[in-house]
Amino acid sequence: MLFLRPDQALELLNVAKDLKETLAVRYPLFNGLSSGETGDGRIEYLDPIERILFMPWRHWKRNCVCKIEAETVKLQAIYSGARKAGPLLRSNKGGHFSREGIYYVVNRVARRTSIPGREGISPRTLKRTFCREWLRTPGNTLAGLQKQLSHKHLWSTAHYLPYVLEDVEIEQNRMMERIMLGQAEPPRLVP
To answer: How far apart are CA 114 and CA 120, in angstroms?
Structure first.
């Protein structure tokens, strides 16, 4: 599955049984974190006032920051309780989650939904959903998404563009209207 519709994303969030599952879904879905970033995230690196998560390691990059959505920060504070250090999400053994561990938590939550193809829902699906919704929101930019994901190059972020087709639909409708009206103008190659 490439991405979820907003109603499917909310259904996924609503079937989470506890705070750990809720946060495992929220970090990629509302903040764009990967499963590795979610698993490696640490409480001491989350600034609850500025809502910034410092990531000393993000992919092959070092010293990146990511803005965390307000409700996620609030739920993280409740989940962490008195803990001032350690992993954002604790595994059943008390340590941090691996990438695969976060994948299994998200996939287990997804299997409880009625979403078609739910077996294929992963943190990557949620991250693509985040990116798609970011780009579909009026006023949001590709450059803003690039900063949120800590991508060094814009082409790293641009691969999320094929999931946003609203502009293509508008142009396609304009083309069909021209064809249906029988306007036989030669095509313009430049605007």
So the answer is: 13
